[in-house]
Amino acid sequence: MQTLGNFINGNNVESQSGRVGAVYDPATGEQTKQVCLSSAQETAQAITAAHDALAEWSAVTPLNRSRVMFKFKALLEENKDELALLITSEHGKVFSDAQGELTRGIEVVEFACGIPHLLKGEQSMNVGRGVDSFSLMQPVGVCAGIAPFNFPAMVPLWMFPVALACGNTFVMKPSEKDPSVPLKLAELLKEAGLPDGVFNVVNGDKESVDVLLSDPRVQAVSFVGSTPIAEYVYKTGSENGKRVQALGGAKNHMVVMPDADLDLVSGSLMGAAYGSAGERCMAISVAVCVGDEAADALIEKLETEIANMRVGAGLGEGEEPHMGPLISRQHADKVLSYIETGIKEGARLVSDGRNFTVTGNEQGYFVGPTLFDNVTPGMRVYQEEIFGPVLSIVRVNTFEEALKLVNEHEYGNGTSIFTANGEAAHMYTHQVQVGMVGVNVPIPVPMAFHSFGGWKRSIFGPLNMHGPDGVRFYTKMKTVTARWPKGQQNINHYTMPTMK
Hints:
Blueprint: E1 3-4, E2 6-8, E3 11-13, E4 20-25, E5 30-36, H1 40-59, H2 62-78, H3 80-91, H4 95-113, H5 115-118, E6 123-128, E7 131-139, E8 142-146, H6 154-165, E9 169-173, H7 180-191, E10 199-201, H8 206-214, E11 218-224, H9 227-239, E12 243-247, E13 252-256, H10 262-274, E14 284-290, H11 292-307, H12 329-345, E15 348-351, E16 370-373, H13 380-383, E17 390-396, H14 399-408, E18 411-412, E19 414-418, H15 422-431, E20 436-439, E21 455-456, E22 459-460, H16 467-473, E23 475-483
Parallel strand pairs: 1-5, 8-9, 8-11, 9-10, 11-12, 13-14, 13-19, 14-17, 16-17, 19-20
Antiparallel strand pairs: 2-3, 4-5, 6-7, 7-23, 12-22, 15-16, 18-21
């Protein structure tokens, strides 16, 4: 059986830790590979490689760093199908969805290609007589990224292209559940001309994470995952003097106004709730219907859509399914337990995803699309992130109730409102306490030249991913104030310096 190791200092390296984790095909339930779980010493070796490469890489001009990114982008496009196959075989999402994930990641690489423009500082001439001020945006140093299982390509691509283009070096710690793609990305970066040691991949578990969070040579840490782990990463990294951006969980609401186009709403909800089996941090898991008439009509449409959904293996012959399996048996069981909890709490189960099997893939980790009605804010299925194909309908009477409901939830990652009323949309976008908002758009993920991040307990740290915030996170600003006097001058100032 193939054992996946690490990528350190430009080479694939076998681990000597003696610990491994199993990698499964979620569609079949069969183990296909195993991945090393690196020791603390092996993680430190990757940090050493990044640290040793820093001085030379940070001295490379932004123009030449961007040329490496251009070549990397071309290689990603050339190898897109191979990468998508790896994603589907280890994560389970359908092939077209895996390709879409790569497209969104490549967009960040395109953004990073413009780094010479993005690193231009500010300049003020003659701030005082014969005195100029200007700013420099310089690399932070060795950076680390810790990625989740649900986007094995896109989330790493949110992080390291911007970091590398800014002149930093990087250590990537992928999810041990689907680790193949980051290793392939490392090989493509080397093929694009990235010097050895600038980008490294360490496979592992908490032992590796804790080294990245504590080693003084690591200056910045990026993380995406659940809120409890995001909080741990932020707290531990910050205590060790690092800048940290840690993106956590979500419970994303869609507010459905009485005047909304319900055909648009139902079609949008199907993809937003059940696409990628709900394993998206921007998945819509709650539809807040204003008025019973809108709720009843929407549920009728959703029932029809759900009955016509194709669920199956992400790779195979015939028409592609709409939705594939969940990542693991453990996670599928967790999602099923939430369905049981919702029933016990009194929610009405409209569509039941339990006991769902796919012919020919009976051992796969499948949970069918599930729909609850009459969900209330006190229920666990409303409060907690399920991260599966479970959609809850909450009924309210007014727009104000819907807004209050969203604002009082502990998470604030993404939200949307579907309406034909411009005033309602304007009020919602300005008053909702959520970081990413869609108007008649179900999953408002920003483009790469904007920044991605939520509010409240969906993020820890002041700066978001990619876009302008990404450049700010991976650079340190230095401001220079300079005078070039003529001849010898002897000026003694014993008071606060001011410009004249």
